[in-house]
Amino acid sequence: MVRILVRGLSKFFASRAVLEDVSLSVEPGETLVVLGPSGAGKSTLLRCVAGLSPFDAGEVQVNSWVLRPGAQGLSAGAALRQRVGFIFQDFGLFPHKRAWENVALAPRLVRKLEAETAREQALELLAKVGLAARAEAYPHQLSGGEKQRVAIARALAMAPAALLGDEITSSLDPELKWEVVETLLRLKGEGLTLLLVTHEVGLARQVADRVLLLVEGKVVEEGPTQTLLSRPRTPRGQQFLSRLLV
Ligand SMILES: Nc1ncnc2c1ncn2[C@@H]1O[C@H](COP(=O)(O)OP(=O)(O)OP(=O)(O)O)[C@@H](O)[C@H]1O
């Protein structure tokens, strides 16, 4: 079971703060959706939590892994990513590899699984995300929703106890979004800790236990999904949500 804690995280690009004193927690098995407009700092926040980007102040703690400011934090991030899966907005699949090969690659290289074991595991994971019949397809032969589900299966192949997802439904048509939401709901049911960032209120409403609003690099407010989305407490939260819901 994984708990994610972020305390007082700040990050600057040149002298401009893109994240300012951001704190959040995701309890084991909980789904937190960070909601915010374009440029709010959502991707940057997720990359800091995954140990993919250095930050300037604060601390990220994922169970016993602690990431601190500077480059040293990034080497701790490499160990952390063995237990935490990261799903990128653009899927990040290898175009010349079949769906199952994309899923089997990291277990082969990092966990040193035998080829046949890695293939069997990949086929099982593709079945779990509803893609058993598409295992032999190349990414260009898959729809956006299918590609995203292969990316989820690939993240699951490292047996993560938590998944971080960056705008994982934003590029999909409405009917394909549902395929991914269904997959997320299933994973949530299995007790995975999920931290998702998005500008889509619909995704937050469908999967989040709690929502955190991030605007211009600052936490505006956070709370249980239904309460926060229907009755934001702060003027900035009200302003942000009314703009999104128009
Ligand atoms: N490498 C970089 N160098 C300088 N500025 C950057 C860099 N990466 C991001 N930024 C800036 O940091 C701010 C936050 O960007 P970020 O991508 O985290 O926002 P976001 O909320 O994920 O936006 P979107 O929803 O549009 O992806 C933006 O103003 C962006 O221009």
Can you characterise this structure?
This protein is α/β, with parallel strands linked by helices and 246 residues long. The protein has two domains: 1-83 and 162-172 and 179-246, Rossmann fold (3-Layer(aba) Sandwich); 89-159, no CATH class. It is 39% helix and 26% strand. The protein contains nine helices and ten strands. Strand 7, helix 6 and strand 8 (193-198) form a beta-alpha-beta unit. Bound molecules: adenosine-5'-triphosphate (ATP). Residues 13, 18, 36, 38-44, 199 line the site of adenosine-5'-triphosphate.
Spell out the key features of this protein.
single chain; 246 residues; alpha/beta; Rossmann fold; 2 domains; 4-stranded antiparallel beta sheet; 39% helix; 26% strand; globular; binds adenosine-5'-triphosphate
How would a textbook summarize the main sheet?
A: 6 strands, mixed
Number of domains: 2
Low-confidence spans: pLDDT under 50, at least 5 residues?
Answer: none
What is the arithmetic mean of pLDDT?
Answer: 90
Q: What's the helical proportion of residues? A: 25-40%
Shape category: globular
- From the 3D coordinates, which CATH architecture of the largest domain would you assign? 3-Layer(aba) Sandwich
Strand order of the largest sheet: 6-7-8-3-9-10
Number of helices: 9
What is the assigned CATH homologous superfamily of the largest domain? P-loop containing nucleotide triphosphate hydrolases
Give the H and E element order.
Answer: EEEHEEHEHHHEHEHEEHH
Radius of gyration: 18 Å
Structural class by SSE content: alpha/beta
Task: Give the termini separation.
Answer: 38 Å
Please provide the count of β strands.
10
For this structure, the CATH topology of the largest domain is Rossmann fold
- Strand percent estimate: 25-35%
- Identify every distinct bound molecule in the structure, by name, code or SMILES: adenosine-5'-triphosphate
CATH domain class name of the largest domain: Alpha Beta
InterPro entries: AAA+_ATPase (IPR003593), ABC_ATPase_HisP-typ (IPR030679), ABC_transporter-like_ATP-bd (IPR003439), ABC_transporter-like_CS (IPR017871), MetN_ABC_transporter-like (IPR050086), P-loop_NTPase (IPR027417)
Family: Belongs to the ABC transporter superfamily.
Keywords: ATP-binding, Nucleotide-binding, Transport
Organism: Thermoanaerobaculum aquaticum
